Amino acid sequence: MAELLLRRFKTAQDVQDWEETLNFTGIEQYGVEAVLDYARQYYELGDRKEIVNLPSEKISVLSGKPRINEINKFDDKHNPAGSLRKDSTVFCIHCRKTFDFKQSKVIKENDNNLTMVVCKNYPNCHGTYLDYKVLTPTILYEDARTQYLEKELNGFSHITMNSRVHCIHCGDEYLYNEANAVISPDDGEVWIHCKNYPKCDGTIIDMMGRE
Is the four-CA dihedral 106, 109, 112, 116 of positive or negative sign? Predict the structure, then answer.
């Protein structure tokens, strides 16, 4: 990983930006391999990210359907395992402003049609979505959701994926495999919540098994 990062760090600002990114994403808690995978993704996208620093005459700011199409790549359907979603509230670590992700701008490099989702305050801020910290809980879907539902069962022998459960918070009954897996914005941990989250804040410890 040191070799990868050394190739990317040109100035003290580069080091500071990376340290802030690690701090705000909380990725370090998942170990060295997770940080390495994130670094590869971050810097591969970083090549595209550099279009934000191009002169204004080489950039087009998208609007209408082209912009919406790029924003929609972060919806539940296209990004089921990601913590950043179209409906997220985000914090840009460059301008230190909070806003709804849907307010982001989308820019395109005129020479090769590369696009990038950037801070809503562009061009005054050169932050991109890679520099966002998600401030709102994120519901996982599909395989990512199933993975965490199964993992959490290790501590609850009275429940299986197909068990019928009763939530003592909202009183609803449903199959455990209908519960929600939610990424907390505070610590990046995934918590199992009631099927009716966010209207109900019950968690797996509030689910009573039914025959």
Answer: negative
